[in-house]
C-alpha cells in the first residue's frame, strides 16, 4: 500500500506492520498485560457524540491553538516517544521536520536516539523536552541547563513510569535495545528488507541524551524493561516535581496524571499544564481512558492548568471531542510513529495531513469554524441519556 493510498491512521498502521520487523512493530503497537487500557483509550471516544448546529458561516476553519506559550497551527502536536531509530533510519529528525512543516510542536523524549541539541537546531518550530527524574539527579540538572541553552519551549516531566509496565508483546517478540537478531526472530528481520538494509548502514541505536552518563547499552543488547527498571527512580515525589518546575522557570508540563486530586497538586507545585495520559495503555492496566478524565479534572482546576489529552486518538473527531470536553490541546504518539515506520518524514506528514483534514471537515459539518468555539454544547455523552441532556 502506497502512502498516498493510506486513507486513515489504520492504513498507516498496516503499512508500518509490513515494513518493520516484528519486535519493532509490536513495541509501537503493544500495551500492558491484556491491553484493555490501550484498547479502551480509543474505544472511549465512541461514548461521546457530536451535536451539530447548522446555518453557521463555516467558510474558513481556524485550527490555530495557543498552548505552552506558543500558538500552533494545529490543536494537536507530536508527543514525546522514545527510540525513533527503531522505526526508521531518519529517527527523530524526520518527525521533527514534519511537525515544523505543519506548524505544530514536536516533543522529544529523554530516551531519544537523537540529541536534544541536534533536534533544537534542526528546525525553528516550538519544541518540548520530556524528562524523567532518574537516579542520576545530576543528569536531570544537566537536562534543564541544556534545554534552556538550546531554546526549548517547554519541559515535560513524565511521572507514570516508576518502573516499566508488563508489556508481554516485547517478551514474546524478543524486543531488546539495541535490536538483536536471534533464531526466533530471524525470519521477521530477514523479510524487512529496507529496514535491514539501513541497519547494515547504521547500527547506532544509542540513547543520545544519556549515552555520555549511562553505560548500560554499551554493554550489549538488553531488555527494555531491564533498562527502565535499572535507571528510573521510585523515590520521586511531588517535592522533586516542585524543584524541577522551579529550576525550569518556563512552561512546565506533568505527563501521566489522571485524577483531579493529582491535577490540584500540579497547580500547587507550579505546573502550567498537565498531559492527561495513561502512557498509551503501556503502564497500569485498568487505568481509565484519558478522554474520560477531562471533565472531572477541568472541574477541579478550572482554568489554572492547560489540559492536553494524550492517548487513543486515531481520528479528527476524537480531537474535536477532547477539545469540546475541556481540553486545550491533544498530543499523538502511535499515529505519527505508524507514519514514521511507514515512510519516514513523508509518512509522518501523511499522518498529520489525514488528522488535519478530518478535523477541518468534521468542524465544518459540526457548524464550528474555530477551535476556540468548541465547548460542551457540542458533545453529548452517549451513555448518560438518549436525549440532548448534557
What shape does the CA trace take?
globular
Q: Give helix and strand order, one letter per element, not per position.
A: HHHEEEEHEHEHEHEHHEHHEHEHEHEHE
> Which fold name fills CATH's third level, the topology?
TIM Barrel
| Major β-sheet profile | 8 strands, parallel
Helical residue percent?
Answer: 40-55%
Give an overview in words:
The protein is an alpha/beta fold and 390 residues long. It has one domain (3-380): TIM Barrel, CATH 3.20.20. The chain has helices at residues 9-19, 22-29, 36-43, 91-101, 116-122, 137-150, 168-173, 186-190, 193-201, 224-231, 238-248, 260-268, 290-301, 316-325, 334-366, and strands at 48-50, 65-67, 70-72, 76-78, 106-108, 127-131, 154-158, 176-177, 222-223, 252-257, 273-276, 306-310, 329-332, 379-381. Strand 6 (127-131), helix 6 (137-150) and strand 7 (154-158) form a beta-alpha-beta unit. The protein is globular and about 60 Å long. The model is unreliable at 385-390 (pLDDT under 50).
